[in-house]
Amino acid sequence: MKTRRRFIQSLAATATFPLPVIAADGSNKKLRIGLIADIHKDLVPDADERLKAFIDAMNLEKVDAVIQLGDFCQPKPKNQGFLEIFHGFPGPKYHVLGNHDMDGGFKREETVAYYGMENRYYSFDMGGCHFVVLDANDKPEGWKSGYPHFIAKDQVDWLAADLAATKLNTFIFSHQSLERPACIDNQEDVRRVIEEARTPDGKAKVAGCFNGHWHIDHCRRINGIPYVHINSASYFWMGGQYRHDRLDPELAKQFPALASSGPYVKPLFTVLEIDPAQGSFTIRAMKSEWQKPSPQDLNYQSTDIEADFIRAEIRGVDSKAI
């Protein structure tokens, strides 16, 4: 598998946008979007503080919009204050549905209404670019239990039509990954639609795909399309066999899942910067630290995730050159 450095270098010849990026005001100024993923309000005790740090940073930087990439919060009345922190950003703000956002027996329609989303999946234009938000929580035929990771035919058909209709460079956001082999069940069908979206001269319309869900720092290119994981704002999930008590007994009762996780000291989030003049995008680096003991201290092992992806940081990505 390519290293991250080789991945970024390999993008240099292929990731220049196929179409000019011109905003509604006729300019080609940079577009900056704040991204945060997997805060897990219902699983960590300091989610409000982590989200507030993100919104404060984005307000200070005056980014053009913010997007949360799922596993945000359950649609409970007691989470209203948390939601209002996100909605306190004065500019455009967008939600992606994560699998844990329907925990507690909630239906997707309830979470969509609670967040104020226009639909489970949707698209919009901003700053001379096109953006698509997908919902990978559909139930495949024969589904019985567990979290479904699937994009149904009606949504795939909608995506194909949406990409065919746009004349703008496109960025796609989903909670679950279109890159990880053991994730969205029909990811190859979805990637085929993405790869077949072409300009009249045969260039790919989709400039990049971004996801959360895995709580890792990783990116790679598949058939010319960059796929970028945005690390969790809160922690890396290890599992019960690595359980370690991290909270006082009372808090531990309220947030039992944290004992099976490797939390980050400071929240992680990033800025996606789209540069029309260069025909490229960047993901800004951000570092945190592990709350001890770290996954490495506990000798965490995984057959699905390379050790290099498990980090208390977001490493910077430049779609054109390192």
UniProtKB/TrEMBL annotation:
InterPro entries: Calcineurin-like_PHP (IPR004843), Metallo-depent_PP-like (IPR029052), STPP_CPPED1 (IPR051918). It comes from the Bacteria. GO terms for molecular function: hydrolase activity. The keyword Disulfide bond does not apply. Keywords: Signal. The keyword Methyltransferase does not apply. Pfam families: Metallophos. Residues 1-23 form the signal peptide. Residues 31-216 form the Calcineurin-like phosphoesterase domain. PANTHER family: METALLOPHOSPHOESTERASE, CALCINEURIN SUPERFAMILY, SERINE_THREONINE-PROTEIN PHOSPHATASE CPPED1. This is Alkaline phosphatase. It comes from Luteolibacter luteus.
